[in-house]
Amino acid sequence: MGYDFSAVGREAPMFRLGLGWMSLLLDVLNVAGVLDVRAGEPDPPDDVAATWDDPPTEDWPFDGALSEVALAYFAFRSENAGQVPICKLADSSPWIVAAEECEVLAGCADDILDGRRSLVLSEVGNQVLERSGVDRTERLDTTRRIVVEFAQFCRECAAHDGFWAY
């Protein structure tokens, strides 16, 4: 089990993380202030809700064309400028992270890596240590690599229509 992300309308690029590393990436992005933890999911429109009725269909929304209403639902935005709803990255429901949100995420990652948000990685390491008793601070190089790869993925997707998170 893990977190999968794929470019809207294309098979590549793709990005995947296991539960533990995605949890750490979410912690980094949250401490950096780029995630809207208060944004709630919108209510699904009828044509989207019907996809998950009994019996459920095998089709995922990204397997075909979407109505404008469905597209607006899957690509809903935070009311806070410069933030992305956390549920888009943190749950296994399909969501579209729009191109502009990709730019926000990539910019935040660049700030972290370039030292403009230098406290984030050490703050997250301490939070994870306190919360779980697992010292991930010794894995700082891997954490940096994940942030680099996620930023690169976001930049590539920003040049197109964003990415599906599922």
At a glance:
The protein has one domain (2-41, 76-165). Helices cover 46% and strands 13% of the residues.
Architecture overview:
By secondary structure, the chain is of the alpha+beta class. The protein has one domain (2-41, 76-165). The chain contains seven helices and six strands; from the N terminus they run ββαβααβαβαααβ. It has a four-stranded antiparallel sheet with strand order 2-1-6-5. A two-stranded parallel sheet has the order 3-4. A hairpin with a 6-residue loop joins β1 and β2. α5 runs antiparallel to α7 (140-158). It is globular, with a radius of gyration of 16 Å.
Outline the secondary-structure elements.
Layout: E1 2-7, E2 14-18, H1 19-31, E3 35-36, H2 46-49, H3 68-74, E4 84-85, H4 87-90, E5 95-97, H5 99-113, H6 119-132, H7 140-158, E6 163-165
Parallel strand pairs: 3-4
Antiparallel strand pairs: 1-2, 1-6, 5-6
Helix pairs in contact: 1-6, 5-7
Tally of structural domains: 1
The total strand number stands at: 6
- Estimate the helix proportion, in percent: 40-55%
Distance between the termini: 11 Å
Largest sheet: 4 strands, antiparallel
Question: What sort of overall outline do the alpha carbons produce when their principal axes are compared?
Answer: globular
Strand content: 5-15%
Oligomer state equals single chain
Mean of the pLDDT scores?
81
Structural class: alpha+beta
Cα Rg: 16 Å
- Helix tally? 7
Strand/helix succession:
EEHEHHEHEHHHE
Strand order of the largest sheet: 2-1-6-5
Low-confidence stretches are none
